[in-house]
Amino acid sequence: MKYLKEFVLVFLLLGGALSGLELLFDDERSLWIFFRQWIMNGTGSVFMWSGNSYLADALSIHFPWTKNSTTRLVVTVFATLIYTFVAWLILVWLSSVLYPWMLTWDGLRHEIMNGSFFVTLIITVLISAFMHGRGFLLAWKETLIEAEQLKKEQMAARYETLKNQVNPHFLFNNFNVLATLVHKDADLAERFIKQLANVYRYVLDSREKEVVPLEEELKQLEAYVFLMKIRFGESLQIEIDPALSQLEGISLAPLTLQMLVENALKHNEASKSNPLLIQVLLENEDYMVIRNKLQTKLNVGESTGVGLENISARYKFLSDKPVLTPQEPGFFTVKIPLIPA
User: Which residues, in sequence order, are bridge partners of residue 251?
Assistant: First the structure.
């Protein structure tokens, strides 16, 4: 409907204006000649101006400049040539109806010699270049705006990540565990302190990084899991796929795995009679899976993590693949895209 209104306006306004100008310089003036020219000029304007505009918009949907500019350029050239040829055939047919003499050799030679043919060709090329160039500039501008917005979101997410890792609740809970261990098992207390130090050292080392190697992220997760296993004991079961440690050249956003485990612990019950199972698995070369059994708490306190929204915001900036949350009976599942290093 949008393009139909545009076509009608172009036909009426541009076709009428061109026909009026031609009538001023035409020795033979009549209402029939004016309307005949109006039909010809209006149809030509719709095909050459509005048609190329529609073609540019359609190509931008299916072959966006921002995805593969070379492919888009090749498709644009061929599509424009084919469209222009088809439009030219239609206009030739219309000319044969309105101006039968133009299909004779003398008529065609007259049109070519007086420059009308070349003027039409040049105008068509200029209109096509303008429309497709306009589409490229708009796509480029939109990409720059989106990149800047994603960059701001990522910076905010990284700040929120760091802020939540010094959450007083996290420190309070771990110090309580440590106070108990000091009196019961000095060696285990020492290991607990070292792993707690590793967790915070990683937070400080990665706070300025956009991505970290998967190997480092897994080591961080192991340190965090050690702390949580001491705290929850048999109430917590965490399985980490050995295949993940075999991957090379893969990166993740810092603290992704720890945040997802934190969220699982925050939102779900964990007890000896009903242990909480958390799995970290390799799905394929594009995604890894973090999922936990659904054992939802009735009363959820203050979060110690930054949440799935934070993670999704960071991965919008880092990967063209989205963070996925597929529905699985009995489980809460998050799929994280693997980023080639």
Answer: 213, 339
